[in-house]
Amino acid sequence: MVVKRRRHLAGGARLTGTNGNSHFAPSLLYAAAKMYYTDEATQAEVADYLQTSRATVSRLLYEARRQGIVRIEVVRIDNEAAHDLGARVAAVLGMTSVYISEPLPVPGRGEAIEDLMGDVLAVAVGRAVMAVGLDVGDVMLVSSGRTIYEVARFELPRLPGVIVAPTVGGTDQPEAWYQTNEITRLVAARIGGRPAFLYAPALPGAELFQTLQTDPTIQRVLNLWPHARCVLTGVGAPPLLRTDAPQFVNVATSPDLIEAVGDVCSRFFNRAGQPVAFAGSDRLIAVDMETLKSIPTVIAVAAGPNKVAPIIAAARANLFSQLVTDPRTAEEILARA
Predict the structure, then answer these.
(1) What is the tens place of the pLDDT at every residue in 81-118?
(2) Where are the alpha helices (DSSP H) in the chain?
(3) pTM of this prediction?
């Protein structure tokens, strides 16, 4: 059994006091890497044995690779092939640039692809963001969503003095990946930028919505939206296919969402790229589609089979101009577009 092999390899290792990725004990990095890569234990199994979280296991594996404890030989797409694949996807979707990442890891038993994509996509996201040429005082907006959250947990290029602001409220959301202020904080810390937090729920009640329209702290962030030079956004899967969603996305109370194929910055659209309204969407604190289209560079980050249809629809509706994705999703886009 996997458990028996991993116990032998781990040697009873346990987490001790750690303080960030660079302060893990080498023996612990080795144990986690040996279990995961050699013994084929899943991240969930490693976390269970080491009595820690899967997020910590992900950091252990990342640090093991960074320190050279793990040397992975993979069959990679060479630069020419990746460039060709990206160029073909860009031509089909009418986009300016498509950045192709390394292939994503195959999830193990009990794992989700979202748990594994962050460090792989972050490299390609870094290339896309650097190409924008952001300078001190420029505004970069970030959306909510699991993909952007996972990318923000890994290294991004340093852009000191860039202002980072959310595209949507989310202070009432329980999941970290829908707490846009948390994602804003992570991204700003990674790039050395200045966060501008939006202290508002995504979908306030009618009375609170009216109050927020005159609140100076809220308006200060909303006024940044039209002046942004860049947006980093995820692409949401169709509501009916989601395993989790923001609290305001409820097909039972908003049946019109059945027509939605996905969303960008919490703005839902159908297969033709047309907006899909839902109960209370007129009160949504989120950048609107017209403002989104006016921003010079909108970089969408999305991967996985459930993201193919929304990527195609959103690109053809001009909701983003650039895309970061993995080779498998890119090939599926070409097959379906």
Answers:
(1) 888 999 999 999 999 999 999 998 877 776 677 778 89
(2) 2-10, 26-33, 43-50, 54-66, 79-93, 118-132, 146-152, 180-191, 206-212, 216-222, 289-294, 308-316, 327-336
(3) 0.76
